[in-house]
Amino acid sequence: MIEFQPSKRLARAFTSVRYTALLVFGACAITGAAHADNLPGYHLGVMDKLHVRVAEWQTAEGTVRDWSVVSGDYTVGPSGSISIPFIGDMPAMGKTTDEIAAAIGLGLQKQFGLRDRPSASVEMSQFRPIYLSGEIQNPGEFPFVPNLTVLKAVSLGGGMRRADAGQRFARDFINAKGDAVVYMAERGRLLMRKARLLAEVTGKDDIETPAELKQLPQAANLLASEKALMQTRSQRMKTQLQSLEDLKTLLQNEVEALSKKNETQSRQLDLAKADRDKVESLAERGLELASRRISAEQRASDLEATLLDTETASLKAQQDINKANQDEITLRNDWQGSLAQDMQDTDKQLETLQLKLSTSQSLMQEAVAQSADASNLDPSGQNVNVVYTIIRDDNGQTKEFQAQENTQVLPGDLIKVSTGLAMR
Questions:
Q1: Which of 11, 243, 256, 263 is deepest in the core (most CB within 10 A)?
Q2: Are residues 244 and 135 in the same domain?
Q3: pLDDT, tens digit, 9 for 90 and up, residues 152-197
Q4: Residues 338 and 386 occupy one common structural domain
Q5: How many structural domains does the chain have?
Q6: 285 CB contacts (<8 Å, ≥6 apart)?
Q7: pTM check: above 0.85
Q8: Is residue 39 part of a domain?
């Protein structure tokens, strides 16, 4: 019996395409991961935590191999290195996640002499912490988050330390103001995210900036970030759909080729049957040898078997086309479901933030009501002077400089907060 090899190769390709499509869509649906907020050009340091995923596309087999032994979580140690299985200690301090990913793939390829270089994805799972000291309600170590400013960091530590009654109203106002700034920044980010989700749901190519964000100075940055994310998600979706479309085209071509082959074999079978009948007629009259009769019957049987294999391969290709159509429908439905879930989660977070913001504004109003000028004056008639100082490790050198409330904080920074009273 003749085995039709092209059908098996296409079946393996179909399986690989489906597996890759599911991986890409699954990765796209993840929310809250640290890599979504990575600092551009960020260089790693001691205590940074990384999440590594490694996979290898095997060209010869047309499959994807998951390097689960290498994939996992790693922490940059005191020596500035991470320890990777099969590779050993790899310098990480001062490098970017892209550089680490490239080094892992190259290291594995050299170690095992692989034809195809494994693809590594390195994401920040946790930045090294920041530290607050001085006039802070709860000084100490705190986890770092992207877009952290000095004022936001102070809010993480519970705000300014509460001292005597003479400074209470001013500090209440400062704490409430710090919380309000954090909530407003988060609200702006969520509103822009919702605008991006609305654009994706309605199939628009551009994001319409919400009216309440148009006057904000950071609106342009928020819009650029969401546009970049939308373009990436759209491109991934188009790539997956195009892969399924290409697969259907290949399978359709196979069906057409098998149909033509089936026609040719049908004609050959008709000729073989006619020859077999003629030989049988002559053999019955003793005009033909029995061996030729057997040969004619065998040839007709072989052609019938080959024709059956061709028809079976054609049916299998048709089934694969139907499966690809179903996968395309499932992919689109999952995409819409993911957008709906993201929209629901965003609305819920906006409602929570609005409640927190209202509380902070009420606290600010209460502080103002109890002090003539709670933002910069205590009841004794003195100004509250707050000084922020950042101590930062820069390529092994310690730098110390004064900062403002909106100064950006980097992982590993130490923020010192000091206050004093000065007469007007």
A1: 243
A2: no
A3: 999 998 887 765 444 566 667 777 788 888 888 888 889 989 999 9
A4: no
A5: 3
A6: none
A7: no
A8: no
